[in-house]
Amino acid sequence: MQIHVARQSAQIGIFTVEEIQAGLISGRFLLSDLAWRDGMATWVALGDWPEFRSVVPPSPAAAANSTVAAATPVNAEVTVPWEKEKSPKSYFATLKGAILTPRETFAVGRFEFGNYLIFAYITTLLTLPAMAYSQIAQGDMFKQLGEQLQQIHTPFFDGMAKYFLQQGEQPKFIAIIGIVVAALFGPLIHAFFGVLDWVGYKILRRSVTVERAVVAGLVGAALFFNVIYVPVALLTGSPVLYFGSALLFFIPGMIISCRAKGAIAGVGAWWAFFASFIIILLFSCCCGCTLWVLVAMVAKSFAG
């Protein structure tokens, strides 16, 4: 049985029951260290595991001497390929591990913001051709969609058709500006949403550092846009295929993204999902309330 152990939101590594029992006796691990294994909903202190309750911890001095060594992994123990070396091979190995085995891939790492900001910009660079194609092809797609909706001949769909036809008429330089802005500031925007995820973790009372939450957001966005955006963007020319593929890829992309975010943050995938969901819900409520107040103020001014 493989058990993940963490201390103060920093994952120490993956160990067997026997290794953890020996580590508790030697002082390498503490009963307050958090642990997780497949099938568990959240991390639980080692002292609350039936397998480790009977283990006698070492003296406070011995435990203090082992704290730094256990909490700070050395280079040989780092499991994230991207942290071992910066190369195309390690980049794609990290993506592959994040999709297939996120817990093992992100078991031990420093998760420094600068390293993963570079990772995010590489992802943006790789998806840039698909982004450019999507922006260019959107005009034709919206035109096709608008023409199809016009054939239904109802007031509701006529309004939608007019909107889509107008989208197809926008100048090309607007699409170019959108591509440049996304390329320059996209990863920073994803980092900002990582900070919002950290607020969500705090609301859910999960112990996650800001840096880990931001790194999780950067990697989660990289996965989501690799799994979702690129295949969907290549189908932009056809409205049916575009929206159909977006629906088809959305749920698998969310699952892959939340599993990786949860592994990096040291929480389960569901905690990662609900942290983002809470923030989206709060923003929706705030925006909805703000809109309602503005509408009420406008209505009152006209009534006056």
Key phrases:
single chain; 304 residues; 2 domains; four-stranded antiparallel beta sheet; 4 strands; 5% strand
Helix/strand layout:
Elements: E1 3-7, E2 10-15, H1 17-26, E3 34-36, E4 44-45, H2 60-71, H3 81-84, H4 88-100, H5 102-105, H6 113-150, H7 155-167, H8 172-203, H9 210-233, H10 239-265, H11 269-303
Antiparallel strand pairs: 1-2, 1-3, 3-4
Helix pairs in contact: 6-7, 6-8, 6-9, 8-9, 8-11, 9-10, 10-11
Give a concise summary:
The chain has 304 residues and is mainly alpha-helical.
**Total discrete domains:** 2
* Chain oligomer state: single chain
Shape: elongated
Number of helices: 11
For the largest sheet, list the strands in their spatial order: 2-1-3-4
Description:
- It is a single chain.
- With 304 residues, the chain is mainly alpha-helical.
- It folds into two domains: 3-72, no CATH class; 102-303, no CATH class.
- Helix content is 70%, strand content 5%.
- It has eleven helices and four strands, in the order E-E-H-E-E-H-H-H-H-H-H-H-H-H-H.
- It has a four-stranded antiparallel beta sheet with strand order 2-1-3-4.
- Helix 6 (113-150) packs across helix 7 (155-167), helix 6 (113-150) packs across helix 8 and helix 9 (210-233) runs antiparallel to helix 10.
- The longest helix is centred in the middle third of the chain and has 38 residues, at 113-150.
- Mean pLDDT is 79; it is low at 65-76.
